[in-house]
Amino acid sequence: MTREELINEIFSKKSFLCVGLDTDVKKIPPHLSGDEDPVYAFNRQIIDATAPYCVAYKPNLAFYESGGVKGMLSFEKTIQYLKTNYPRHFIIADAKRGDIGNTSTLYARTFFEEYDVDSLTVAPYMGEDSVKPFLSYPGKWVILLALTSNQGSFDFQLTESRDGERLFEKVLRVSQQWGDADQMMYVVGATRGEKFQDIRRIAPHHFLLVPGVGAQGGSLQDVCRYGMTRDCGLLVNSSRGIIYASSGEDFAERAGEKAHELQEQMRAELESITR
User: What is the pTM of this model?
Assistant: First the structure.
């Protein structure tokens, strides 16, 4: 999916919602436990219920890798279901990969050739040669970790060099030499609020993938106030707040309602943009 195609989908659907498929087999409704593949059965119903209200899905690989081969089959079937039934939705594999060049090359092959997802989250710590292999695929996106919302982010991301530049700012500045706004996004946690202004000073045109709205307490309004651009420039993710809205047989219906609520808030934010 190109940048322009993504932007068109956002303004067509009046949504920049990404639904996180963080599917924990221990949390899905009990009535699915007898299914041959409970995780896939859960994902399929969540997708059908939320697809009208979102533009992207983000399965987190930890929830699938924890199930071994069976878990990865659930992941693969989920990706194929999306590609077959909802081909206009943007698919993010949240795997946070990043290693020396030849290893990253194989990670890139895994996700962009074998699974054929649209994008992959990548850790920048090992530098340019660990990221470049992911950027060699036309039409695919790298979503680079920049400023996350977890408590441990204070350990490194917000530390300052002698000239006052914070580490996340250096990541933003240097990485723009590797890829442009047509192939690279950044992860910025929703709980960072006003720091979106600092992000936008350095990366005014890149899309930002924003986790933390909903269960983690991030404010959609603050994210939009400080981070939105004339092209929207945002994919806002909600996982637990949508997919675990109910643990009963109405889980998919309730997930759809929660996604619709967020989409309506996003519609109002998008209507404020003059393109």
Answer: 0.95
